[in-house]
Q: What sequence folds into this?
């Protein structure tokens, strides 16, 4: 029986449960013995000119090895000039550069609180904190630009040379005729707030320069891309840099590649010749790791009185923080998926990317797609309320019907496969929608203090958006019958080791226990892309599958030669993991036999799978929230979902991905927000201030199964890593608003904190 | 102090935290440092059988006392503690960074309340953050471990 689709416990777990993972700060290799500690001196101000730095007192402090400022960076190539010509329609996820260039250390101006200004290197971490306090930096404060409105107002410029705070403009101007023929048009500006990724392990780097070679241990989602970035930043040959990624304690998009802090640590190791370590504090993580989301969205939706949506427009202002690290990429993805799972005749999008005095924005679980879904789902709810229809019914009426795939979205992408109405109906049935509405009606009729709200969100998303970048796999079968997989996709909790071993067992009959999965070392795996964008199974997994099939072909030839039989007569018995002549099970040759018969190159295959295209997972989330109308406190009491990501390889892993995504999605709807004051001071710089969601704030989730296979890859798989944040945020958000909608509330910006909910109720009551 | 049954003695600076002592002096790196405000619980270990956040305890405060980390939980190399076993069976971990602290918090929770309800598990683990699992399978694992321990204790 095939192992595919069965519930397989993870091979990663015994180590993680008994001695713990080996994260960067846990590495105890001889090369790092006696490594000094890096402590950053960071800007305490959101926006200021630097008029002087005096490091003399710090340099004289006990245990200080070196203090490095921008004046010490004299051994790096200049950043490449920005590309010439007009910006492309499809922006690359790359820094803009040019006048928007982000330096390694702040030069003469700091643009966010937390920006690196100097590095202190000491023999131990405690002394680093002491000495960092002795570095004297003279700042001349400037007015801070916080939020999209201030950025667009342009009274203060972050980059005077750019003459604007708007870094990217894209999209179509509004067509005055777009909403012609609509009986009802609703328009509203909503916030999709800035949130912090908060991987439990923050950023961490260790680095050593020895014999002309730089070795960097870094907590990243992409060791090979990290090396590529370092090659550019340091002007070294790829062969002169080795990047090692051990266990990684969560990434969520914020650990794609390496950022300036990591580059500085690696550079400092080379510059000083000392092995160095840096593990950030949680405060550094909350103020200087990238944040996510941060869009102001203006949504306009129109349609007929009977609930058919005819036109939709989305205008986005993307707050990109102090430096446009991703250019226009995130709002590009938002625009790409703006129409959501609905068959809408006219859809227009436009976006502007603005700089503000806050930490840069980067990918965060979903990266542009949760923002698209939040916008269209809010629009559908507002439209449903305006025409007086049930929000689930309005969705059913507008979802792309099952017979219309592949479906060409007016925003560009071609949705591959789906059954959107089926997903909606399954969730409504599973949740007992009619009974929930009846309970809601009873509470409303009684005037209960605690009211019930139901939020329904349908979605389609894009996974492996960058499928053209491909992914690598190398599979070796050894003459002891074991196998090793080298994967270009370096994981951070997803379960690649388990999943890739399952694929090998299924294809070759080599038991999972005999398969070792290797990742995260550019000496062993020079080429690879990594883990992000819900791409790993459909890119790296398919690459492993292809490598296994290649090995199988080679093995068939070897076995035929050994057994003096024709290749066509040979069979692989994947239950026993042996080759035999058809009809003669006794003629069996083991994988050890076959591999032992291979030549000097061994029995191995290397694959770079780049033929894939993006896939479009879909689903529906239904959230049930209770809202205390006297205190404004909202509590999620149920969350029911269908997340269809094609064929499921291991339900244990996909369910885990869905659970985690739901929690993070609900967290954005109900609790989490990064807050800066008007002067650019971060007010959520510790976990006592940033409301990272806890077990006590969540119910158990009700996951319903649905598998509509993808047709563009041989495994039938789509991505699942980000479905949770994409579906859960609008569902939970909608549930809270729905609970108080009978009081006259139409919208509450996220997060729906007690203060905001209470204020919305009061305002609605005062209006009446 | 005694760590996982072995005596560990060292002279350290006054301000050394217990988590630093366990990680840097004793060389036991399972307990992690995830914050600086004792909010996340990644450093949770047992001190005289009670769970503590070892980033908020000075090493000196543990002098002469008994420390248990996740490395000392299993009775043998192939014998997982029921809580570890349940985390494995229920997929109660993904990246693993919160796991050593979460497991120790769960052990302590079950010692105080061997038959918790789901709500009691959720409120009992409120001081331990996990960013990967959405807590769903962690809660299931703790409830399953409670059942398993009860099953073992039954004659």
A:
């Amino acid at each position: 029986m095939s192992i595919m689709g069965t519930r397989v416990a993870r091979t990663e777990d015994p180590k993680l449960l008994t001695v713990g993972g080996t994260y960067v700060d846990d590495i105890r290799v001889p090369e790092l013995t006696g490594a000094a500690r890096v402590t950053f001196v960071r800007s305490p101000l959101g926006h200021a000119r630097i008029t002087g730095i005096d490091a003399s007192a710090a340099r004289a402090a006990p245990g200080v090895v070196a203090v490095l400022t921008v004046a010490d960076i004299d051994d790096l190539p200049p950043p490449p000039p920005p590309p010439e010509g007009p910006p492309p329609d499809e922006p690359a996820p790359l820094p803009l550069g040019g006048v928007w260039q982000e330096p390694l250390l702040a030069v003469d101006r700091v643009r966010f609180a937390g920006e690196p200004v100097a590095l202190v290197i000491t023999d131990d971490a405690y002394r680093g904190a002491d000495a960092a306090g002795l570095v004297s930096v003279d700042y001349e404060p400037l007015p801070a630009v916080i939020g999209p409105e201030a950025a667009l107002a342009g009274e203060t410029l972050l980059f005077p040379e750019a003459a604007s705070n708007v870094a990217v403009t894209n999209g179509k101007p509004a067509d005055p005729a777009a909403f012609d023929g609509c009986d009802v048009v609703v328009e509203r500006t909503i916030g999709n707030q800035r949130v912090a990724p908060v991987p439990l392990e923050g950023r961490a780097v260790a680095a050593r320069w020895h014999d002309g070679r730089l070795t960097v241990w870094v907590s990243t989602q992409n060791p090979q891309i990290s090396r590529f970035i370092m090659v550019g930043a340091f002007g070294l040959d790829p062969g002169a840099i080795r990047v090692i990624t051990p266990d990684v304690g969560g990434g969520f998009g914020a650990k794609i590649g390496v950022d300036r802090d990591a580059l500085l640590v690696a550079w400092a190791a080379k510059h000083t010749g000392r092995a160095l370590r840096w593990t950030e504090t949680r405060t550094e993580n909350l103020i200087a790791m990238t944040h996510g989301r941060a869009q102001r969205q203006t949504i306009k939706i129109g349609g007929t009185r009977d609930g058919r949506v005819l036109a939709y427009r989305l205008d986005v202002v993307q707050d990109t923080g102090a430096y446009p690290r991703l250019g226009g990429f995130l709002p590009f993805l938002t625009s790409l998926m703006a129409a959501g799972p609905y068959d809408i005749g006219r859809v227009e999008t436009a976006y502007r990317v603005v700089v503000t005095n806050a930490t840069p924005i980067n990918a965060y679980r979903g990266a542009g797609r949760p923002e698209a879904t939040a916008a269209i789902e809010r629009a559908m709810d507002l439209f449903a309320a305006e025409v007086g229809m049930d929000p689930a019914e309005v969705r059913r009426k507008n979802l792309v019907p099952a017979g219309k795939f592949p479906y060409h979205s007016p925003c560009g992408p071609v949705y591959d496969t789906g059954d959107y109405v089926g997903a909606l109906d399954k969730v409504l049935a599973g949740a007992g929608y009619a009974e929930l509405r009846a309970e809601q009606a009873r509470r409303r009729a009684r005037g209960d203090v605690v009211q019930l709200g139901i939020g329904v969100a349908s979605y389609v998303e894009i996974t492996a958006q960058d499928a053209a970048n491909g992914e690598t796999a190398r599979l070796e079968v050894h003459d002891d019958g074991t196998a090793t997989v080298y994967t270009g996709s370096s994981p951070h909790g997803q379960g690649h080791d388990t999943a890739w071993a399952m694929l090998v067992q299924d294809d070759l009959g080599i038991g999972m226990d005999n398969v070792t999965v290797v990742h995260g070392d550019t000496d062993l795996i020079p080429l690879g892309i990594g883990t992000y964008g819900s791409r790993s199974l459909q890119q790296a997994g398919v690459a492993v599958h292809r490598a296994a099939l290649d090995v199988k072909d080679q093995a068939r030839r070897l076995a035929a030669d050994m057994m003096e039989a024709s290749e066509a007569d040979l069979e692989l018995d994947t239950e026993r993991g042996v080759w035999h002549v058809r009809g003669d099970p006794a003629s069996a040759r083991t994988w050890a036999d076959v591999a032992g018969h291979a030549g000097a190159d061994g029995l191995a295959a290397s694959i770079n799978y780049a033929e894939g295209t993006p896939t479009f997972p879909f689903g529906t989330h239904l959230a049930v929230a209770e809202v205390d109308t006297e205190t404004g406190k909202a509590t999620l009491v149920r969350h029911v979902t269908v997340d269809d990501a094609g064929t499921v390889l291991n339900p244990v892993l996909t369910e885990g991905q869905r659970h985690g995504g739901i929690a993070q999605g609900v967290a954005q709807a109900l609790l989490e927000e990064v807050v800066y004051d008007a002067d650019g001071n971060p007010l959520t710089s510790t976990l006592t201030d940033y409301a990272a969601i806890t077990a006590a704030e969540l119910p158990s989730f009700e996951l319903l199964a649905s598998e509509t296979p993808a047709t563009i890859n041989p495994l039938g798989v789509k991505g699942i890593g980000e479905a949770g944040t994409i579906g859960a945020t609008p569902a939970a958000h909608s549930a809270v608003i729905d609970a108080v909608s009978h009081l006259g509330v139409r919208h509450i910006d996220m997060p729906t904190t007690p203060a905001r909910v209470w204020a919305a109720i009061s305002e609605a009551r005062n209006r009446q | 102090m005694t760590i996982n049954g072995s005596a560990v003695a060292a002279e350290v600076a006054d301000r050394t935290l217990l988590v630093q002592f366990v990680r840097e002096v004793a060389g036991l790196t399972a307990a992690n440092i995830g914050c600086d405000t004792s909010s996340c619980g990644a450093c949770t270990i047992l001190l005289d059988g009670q769970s503590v956040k070892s980033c908020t305890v000075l090493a000196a405060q543990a002098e002469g006392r008994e420390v248990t980390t996740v490395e000392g939980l299993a009775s043998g190399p192939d014998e997982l503690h029921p809580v570890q076993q349940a985390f494995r069976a229920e997929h109660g971990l993904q990246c693993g960074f919160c796991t050593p602290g979460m497991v120790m918090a769960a052990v302590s929770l079950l010692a105080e309340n061997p038959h918790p309800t789901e709500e009691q598990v959720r409120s009992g683990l409120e001081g331990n953050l996990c960013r990967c699992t959405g807590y769903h399978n962690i809660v299931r694992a703790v409830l399953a471990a409670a059942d398993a321990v009860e099953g073992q204790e039954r004659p």
The mean pLDDT of chain B is 95. DSSP finds five helices and five strands in chain B. The radius of gyration of chain B is 15 Å. Chain B touches chain A through 55 residues (CB under 8 Å).
